[in-house]
Write a structure and sequence with these properties.
Number of domains: 4
Strand content: 15-25%
CATH topology of the largest domain: Rossmann fold
Radius of gyration: 33 Å
CATH architecture of the largest domain: 3-Layer(aba) Sandwich
Helix content: 25-40%
CATH class of the largest domain: Alpha Beta
Mean pLDDT: 88
Structural class: alpha+beta
CATH superfamily of the largest domain: P-loop containing nucleotide triphosphate hydrolases
Number of strands: 25
Shape: elongated
Distance between the termini: 103 Å
């Protein structure tokens, strides 16, 4: 067994592989073979055959981010090994065989752009090079974060990983002979025996997962990332895992890596990557955000050119470009203002801007001011349809388990037995939908009606933190998953200010939400009823009565909104009197409970009609022309 390859069997004889070049139709494809020799820091070397063509141009960012491959390419050109081709105009050609440290390095030299050589070097039959690596986890390429900036107080990233082109994992108690391809069952036994009482039960569980990912799931061609000094470094795994003696056991499990030449500022990373990086584990699967990682440091044009060499259906979307599609909230225009009877389109645009800035907003005001209707209509417009909108109503018994996730009784479809199972609530369901691949640029809205009627600290739990820190993740109470709110998830709450449960809204919530008032004393609510009456062809008398009513209510939070009178039933015979008696006056009786006020005498239609100069019998007819 070879020590460099972590005790795995020697590879079988390599066939010849070919590489597709961008725009290379009509010319030969480069040819190469995988060597048994050790290449870059323990990876398998790769030999490019003489006569292989190469592109004449390089990607503009290639020299900055992939400096080693760019430098080797320039050296080959300067020495005449990579020269103008006499067979293919506008192309270069290798005069001799060239050995490279890894398949990806070889592909990068020829293409002048980053390439995953384990996938793109293929046999004549189309089998990728990775199929010929024994003891390697099968499946598509993945992306990983391995932490190394603080290993027992030492920054291994700057001291060892970048200079020596490797990534490592501390496993100070691990016995010799545990290498590439070790099963999780085997690791459970080994960790229990080798760590014993030096680690807690939870620490051992975490260690098993990290060792299994590093030794068995991670494979050549995978992307590996790390953080150091506020910068995010990206590389490619180029070989198998192996054990080695190390200082204090800080890096005794190692893998060869070709690191990009420069790192990326953490503060400039896409929010989804930052969310993943906030998870407190030493090895983290970043595959969900790999398209975003692949696009770092490259323009749209470079990504499109880079994808040209990949044999894919032309109609397929390039993952890195698709992930880069920007989230947008459409700008409200006059048609939406007319539909919602809003007095000024600028008011709608301000609400949209508040949502864009804070991603959480509360519409608050007295009953009947159209808070829920406006929230739904605005969300449907900004989200592109009702499919991206979910509504939930809070109430005093509402809990975290109802809202996000918890164990709920569920019947098994086959056995018909009822058992408690972890069940997602409306927020988790919508968050999962919003975070699906391809949905990143589509806004999704959660409408929380009567948001102040529940115990908010109890309902939101640890999610309260995420409302303010959207670029972070938290460990969930029940599932134990690391969860972050998707950037394209927006929350709109409604709050009835006449409900005394508003006292439950604490300063923490007020800091996390933007608050927009809908009040009969201000637009767009104050003139809403008049605009609706004009559109429906009715006279303005109901609006006059409502204004007269609200002028007699001293507390603004208890004034009556216009939606009570924006119904067809109001304009049937006796309809206005019926609505006034059964809906509006009971609200005022509750407000004045214990005040010894004659509600009918003060707020009745007859009283208000007289104040408006109407006759005694005119109060019940909303269609009566105004004097």
């Amino acid at each position: 067994m070879s020590e460099e390859h972590g005790g795995r069997p020697e590879p079988r004889q390599s066939p010849e592989f070919r590489l597709r070049l961008p725009g290379g139709d009509g010319i030969d494809r480069p040819r190469g073979v995988l060597l048994d020799a050790v290449g870059t820091s323990g990876s398998r070397a790769f030999l490019i055959r003489a006569g292989s063509p190469a592109r004449d141009q390089v990607m503009p960012s290639f020299a900055k981010h992939f400096g080693a491959a760019f430098k080797r390419r320039q050296e080959l050109r300067d020495t005449g090994v990579l020269r103008r081709s006499s067979r293919w105009q506008g192309w270069l050609e290798l005069a001799t065989d060239v050995e490279c440290g890894s398949p990806s390095f070889a592909a990068g030299v020829l293409v002048g752009a980053p390439r995953n050589g384990w996938v793109e070097w293929k046999t004549e039959a189309g089998a990728p090079l990775s199929d010929f690596m024994e003891g390697v986890w099968s499946g598509p390429g993945r992306a990983w974060l391995v932490r190394g900036s603080n290993v027992s107080g030492s920054d291994l990233v700057q001291r060892l990983w970048l200079p020596e082109e490797r990534v490592s994992l501390a496993a100070v108690h691990l016995r010799q002979g545990i290498g590439q391809g070790t099963s999780k069952e085997r690791l459970r036994t080994v960790v229990e025996e080798d760590w014993g009482s030096t680690a807690t039960y939870n620490q051992k569980l975490e260690l098993i997962e990290e060792l299994h990912a590093f030794l068995s799931r991670m494979k050549p061609g995978d992307t590996v990332c790390t953080l150091s000094g506020g910068r995010f470094y990206v590389g490619e795994v180029t070989g198998a895992a192996g054990q080695a003696a190390s200082e204090d056991g800080r890096s005794n499990l190692r893998r060869p890596v070709e690191w990009q030449s420069t790192g990326y500022a953490y503060d400039e990373l896409p929010e989804e990557i930052q969310q993943k990086l906030s998870s407190q584990h030493d090895v983290i699967d970043l595959t969900a955000v790999r398209p975003l990682i692949d696009g770092l440091g490259r323009t749209d044009e470079e990504l499109a050119d880079d994808a040209e060499a990949i044999e894919r259906d032309p109609s397929e979307v390039i993952p890195a470009l698709a992930a880069r599609r920007e989230l947008e909230l459409p700008e409200p225009g006059q048609p939406l203002a007319d539909e919602l009877l809003v007095h000024d389109v600028a008011w709608l645009r301000e609400v949209r801007d508040l949502l864009w800035d804070d991603r959480q907003l509360v519409l608050y005001g007295p009953p009947g001011t159209g808070k829920t209707y406006l929230a739904l209509k605005l969300a449907e417009f900004l989200g592109g349809g009702p499919e991206q909108v979910k509504l939930v109503q809070f109430h005093p018994s509402y809990a975290y388990e109802d809202f996000f996730e918890g164990f709920r009784p569920r019947e098994d479809a086959e056995t018909r037995e009822v058992a408690f199972r972890l069940t997602a609530g409306p927020l988790r369901e919508l968050a999962d939908l919003a975070s699906r691949e391809g949905n990143r640029h589509v806004p999704h809205f959660l409408i929380i009606d009567e948001i102040n009627r529940a115990n908010l600290a109890k309902v939101f739990g640890e999610l309260y933190f995420l409302l303010e820190y959207r670029n972070k993740s938290v460990r969930l109470t029940y599932s134990g998953d690391d969860f972050a709110l998707p950037p394209n998830l927006f929350v709109i709450g409604t709050m009835n200010t006449a409900d005394r449960s508003i006292a439950l809204v604490d300063a923490a919530m007020r800091r996390r939400f933007a608050f927009v008032e809908l009040s009969p004393r201000t637009e767009p609510t104050s003139g809403l009823l008049r605009r609706w009456l004009a559109r429906e062809g009715h006279n303005s008398r109901p609006a006059d009565l409502l204004d007269a009513l609200n002028s007699r209510i001293e507390e603004a939070d208890f004034r009556i909104g216009p939606s009570y009178l924006m119904k067809k039933g109001v304009f049937r015979a006796g309809g206005l009197e019926r609505v006034w008696r059964t809906k509006i006056l009971p609200l005022l009786e509750e407000h004045h409970y214990g005040d010894s006020i004659d509600i009918e005498k003060r707020y009745g239609l007859a009283t208000l009609g007289k104040a408006l100069g109407e006759g005694a019998n005119e109060g019940a007819n909303p269609e009566k022309p105004s004097p």
